[in-house]
Amino acid sequence: MNFTKESLALQLNKVFERYKDLAVAKDSHNLVRLHGSIPVDILACGFHLCQSYLIDICIPLNSDKLPYVIDTGRSVAISYRHIYDDGVLCLDTDTRIRMRFLDGFDLLQWLQDFVEPYFFSYEYYVRYSSFPFGDREHGCQGILQTYQELFDASSIDAAYKLMRYCCLHSYRGHHICPCGSGKRLRNCHGNALRNFVADSRKLEILKKDLLLVERELIG
Questions:
Q1: What is the CATH number of the domain that holds 117?
Q2: Which residue of 53, 71, 98, 199 sits 20 to 30 Å from the alpha carbon of 21, by its own alpha carbon?
């Protein structure tokens, strides 16, 4: 995931077609910032949200940094656990978002699958004190929860063991799966592990995440 001027220009055409009120507010050599309101019209979990939100979208260029959203309209209470003090929205774990971009996600899909559902989840939480699509912790706990989902592991502990296997071993289908099932990898989490082993970019992200997790565990 690395936006250049050229690749971003193509994606922005699709974004502006969907979100008519968004426009470029800043265009420099290292950052493009969009400003405007986006409509959110989602019906899920017995709740219908139809509302617009004023935001800034900041897209770093020629960098591995993720795009991020600022709640310019102050629609989200600063006491909400998934917004930072500077108004930047905590959309999901960086790991999950990076993996989606590596799988071919574009900026429009990011807006539709992360930004719009963020506002829906917030409004739902305000009304019902629960999260409609589940919730993740911040920090290393959130990283482990993400890999639990990516590996379809039964527990966070199993996800951690699968992460370690990816980093320390070459894939061998006849190995016993580290998740603790007693099955061979090919009959257990083999497909999920091969998805990382076969993609050096995903494996590099996993290695960095494992280092963060183990530093926290040791600390």
A1: 3.10.110
A2: 98
Answer yes or no: do 59 and 155 share one domain: no
Q: Which residue, among 123, 108, 131, has the nearest Cα to 71 in the 3D structure?
A: 123
- The whole domain housing 55 covers 5-128
Q: Are 109 and 1 in contact (CB under 8 A)?
A: no
Q: Are residues 165 and 120 in the same domain?
A: no
Query: Is 217 strand, coil or helix?
Result: helix
Q: Does residue 134 form part of some domain?
A: no
The answer to whether 205 and 146 have CB atoms below 8 angstroms apart is no
The tens digit of pLDDT for each residue in 125-183 reads 999 999 999 999 999 999 999 999 999 999 999 999 999 999 988 888 899 999 999 99
Cα gap 188→192, rounded to integer Å: 9
pTM over 0.70: yes
Query: CA 130: distance to chain centroid?
Result: 20
Q: Which of 67, 36, 68, 65 is nearest to 52 (CA)?
A: 36
Cα–Cα dist 53/35, whole Å? 11
Helix (H) or strand (E) holding 102: helix 94-102
Express each pLDDT in 82-116 by its tens digit: 999 999 999 999 999 999 999 999 999 999 999 99
